[in-house]
Design goal:
alpha+beta; binds flavin-adenine dinucleotide; Uridine Diphospho-n-acetylenolpyruvylglucosamine Reductase, domain 1; Uridine Diphospho-n-acetylenolpyruvylglucosamine Reductase, domain 2; Uridine Diphospho-n-acetylenolpyruvylglucosamine Reductase, domain 3
Length: 345
Amino acid sequence: MVIEESIPLYTFTTMKVGGNARFFARVRTVVELHEALKYAKDNAVPVFIMGGGSNILVASGGFNGLVIKIELKGIDWVKSADGIYVDVNVASGELWDNFVGETTTRGLWGLENLSAIPGTVGASPVQNIGAYGVEAKDVILNVTAVHCQSGEERIFYHDECNFGYRDSFFKTAEGKYYIITKVSFRLQTKSLPKIDYKDVRLYFENNQVTGREVSSQDIRSAIIAIRRVKFPDLNTYGTAGSYFKNPIITIGAFETLCKKYPDMPSYVIDREHVKIPLAWVLDVACALKGFREGHVGLFEKQPLVLVNFGGAESAEILNFADIVSRKVFEATGILIEPEVEHIGF
Ligand SMILES: Cc1cc2nc3c(=O)[nH]c(=O)nc-3n(C[C@H](O)[C@H](O)[C@H](O)COP(=O)(O)OP(=O)(O)OC[C@H]3O[C@@H](n4cnc5c(N)ncnc54)[C@H](O)[C@@H]3O)c2cc1C
């Protein structure tokens, strides 16, 4: 394993911004991971774990420590004796969407709605990635991780991961010490289509599969087609997808807001809380769809997606996100939180 110095991080992030990593290491084995951690300890520098760089905003000043880019590879498929399910153990550096594609090629069910999400398998439990009515937690069995200080390996079973909406144990102060090396998923062999989410339902109403049942591969193709319209092309623009989380508010706060915005949609979370689709707030309550200042803007076709149209600095993006947050607060009194993690600020 080579430790490189002064490596520009913008080339490793989908936002396409950010300064240099003082030290940078690609780790392809768990042994190399331990070597990299030892290097950081010996040189008394902090560590940042990077997968595909698709959910981070790196400061122009970069990261004054060691960035460890996880490139561990390997997938192990284990069919149950009764053939009902397949447990899949996936190394954390595998590309998420390559893995999802492989599951649908094999006719397995569980991950098809999470097609076309950028990034690595190792990051999927961190924010419990989700889309089109499915979350990674629905199929994660356990997560194997190494403690970055003690080097101890630990398996976190599903309940120990404390999954929530775009949240998990791995985002807590204690959880951030763990580097995920492997994620195990349980996928079903029997048909389990989840096509009730509005965009997916409409897609199948307009593009019916005839003469046979819908396959997980059909759903994957549908999701890819839907997302192609909703997200900017990563080859052209910089983005980290949805910049903010959808806010979760109390039912009381929601009822008050409904007096001002009677059409405001919501999804029940529990007996006391609802989730508000932020795209609706940005579009209808704040009239911000397509809002742009300088090099940064909200994507015309999906206002949740913040775009670097080219040439933006990290501070400009942060400042733009701040303006959007303030406008949402002025219109609704809701404090929105970023989904994207800020590094080196
Ligand atoms: C166009 C676009 C669309 C997107 N759509 C969605 C979507 O539909 N749903 C959704 O949930 N997200 C979405 N995202 C966000 C992003 O793709 C996911 O959060 C993804 O899981 C990030 O993976 P990554 O490997 O790029 O992580 P990174 O951005 O590299 O890292 C993100 C966080 O995870 C940590 N991390 C990464 N790997 C590990 C590891 N092995 N061990 C411990 N910590 C680790 C990092 O330290 C950091 O805190 C989208 C992003 C883009 C650009």
